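The data are quoted verbatim for completeness:
=====
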Amino acid sequence: MNRRSSQSVVDQVLELAIAPSWSRIGYDIRRRMFDWDASALPRLDGRVVVLTGFTSGIGRATASLLGTLGATLHLVGRDPGRVASVSAELLADGIKVTTSIADLADLDAVRRIAGEIIEQHPSIDVLIHNAGALSRTYTTSAQGYETTVAAQVLGPFLLTTLLLEPLRAAHGRVLTVASGGMYAERLSVADLEMTSDAYDGVRAYARAKRAQVELAREWTRRNDDTVSFHTMHPGWADTPGVVESLPTFHRITRPLLRDPAAGADTLVWLAAIEASELGESGGFWLDRRRRSISKVPWTDTPAGERYRLWNWCKERTGLS
C-alpha cells in the first residue's frame, strides 16, 4: 500500500469513528498526515469576502485568518457593540474591514445590508454564511418565522439571491458553515419550521443545518459554474456558542474540542484555494476533504424534497 492509500485509509477510519474524527484528535492527525501549512495558502489581496457571524468563535478566527491572507472583509453582525470592538481589533492588525449591522433572521434587515454591500463591493469573491446559534428557547423573527430557520435558512437564502450578481462578476463562491448534527435529520420541508409547543432547539438546529447542505446542492443544480456553492462541518470546536447552548456537552468534551482556528481551517482553505482544486460544486467538507451528506439510509433526501425546499424559501422570502 502506497503512502496516499495509507492516508486515505486512516482518514476513512477516523470518519467512521465520528467522535475522534470531529474532535481535535481528527484535526491534529490529518494536519500532520497531509502536511497542512496555513501559511502556504494563496494570498487573497484584492479579493472581497463577505462574512456573517464574525464576532466570536469560528467566525472571529475566520475573519482574522482571511484578513492575514490579505482579503478585504465586509463583516456582518447583529450586536453593534461587538461589531465595533471586534472590527477595531481587526483594523488594528492591519486588516481591511467594512461592516454592516443586521440580524439575519430579519428579512428586511437582510435586504438593507445587501444594498449596502453591493454599493461598496460590485464584485464579491466569497460569501460566507456563518451566523446562527443553537437556541434552546422558541422565538420568532420580525416576520414571524421561527428564529433558527429564519436566521440559518431564510436569511442566508435571501442574502445569497440578492448578492448573486456581484458573485457572478467575480466567479465567486458561497460557503456555509453547517454542522455534523445534520446527520441526525432527514430533510423534511413540512417539519423544518418547528412550532412553539413542539420546539426542540437541538433538533431545530440540526434540521436547519440539513437544509443548508441540501440548498447548496439545489443552488448548484440551478446555476451555471460561474458561482460555486459548498458547505462545511467545522468539527467539535470550543466556542462561546457551544458553552452557552450545550453546556453539558462542553463540560464533558472540553479536553477534546478543537480551538476556533482549527474549526475555521477548512472554511479558510475553501475560501482561499484555486477553483480548480475545489472540484464540482455542492460539496460538503470536513478537514479539507469531501464527505458524504448521509451516514444512514433513513436520512437520505426524498425525491423532490430539495425542489420543495427551494420553493418554500422563495415563498417565505418574498422571491416567488
About this structure: The two ends are 54 Å apart (CA to CA). The longest helix spans residues 201-222. Residues 1-35 form one domain. The first strand starts at residue 48 and ends at 52.
